[in-house]
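User: What would this chain look like folded?
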Amino acid sequence: MANLWDQRTSDSSGPDASEHDGLKMIPVWSIGLALVMFVGWQLFSYYSAPHRHTPMHLLMDYVTGTVLASYVLLVGYVSRDVKLRKMPAALWMLIVVVMPGGIGGVVYFLLRQPVLIRCPHCTTELTAEVHFCPQCRFQVAPVCGQCYRGVQTTDAFCPQCGHNIAEDGGPARLHAFRDN
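Assistant: Here's the prediction, encoded as structure tokens.
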């Protein structure tokens, strides 16, 4: 099992793992458009009804501008996320934009496909929850040596069967987090 871990290459984490970080998924055009929407709404509401500058109206204008800007950020996020998941971008963008009240975004998050990674050994596309490649048996995630269920790299014992994971002879980088 140690040999399988030692053969793992750096590109096994999929299409640039930093792309999946929350705020980095929102494109710059979406952030700019959200700022324009927020400021534009504030200016529109301020100059369209100059006699209504009560704290309640100002708060409502602020909340409305925030909701509009958040919607634009959601559309930007979906525009990038849909490409990473290899889903039909035009269809999902239409659903997210057309369905009222952000319902399209909720539908997208409920029905989106998992992110696919490539096996570093044979380049087969895999879902993130697999531990071994079904084409070449390459180990792509840490597993218990007794029950072969997934474990964390920081686990000393398997949470399923209690097996001592250190006995499996994994690579030294997996033992770096332990106090043993």
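The two ends are 20 Å apart (CA to CA). If you want, I can go into more detail on any region.
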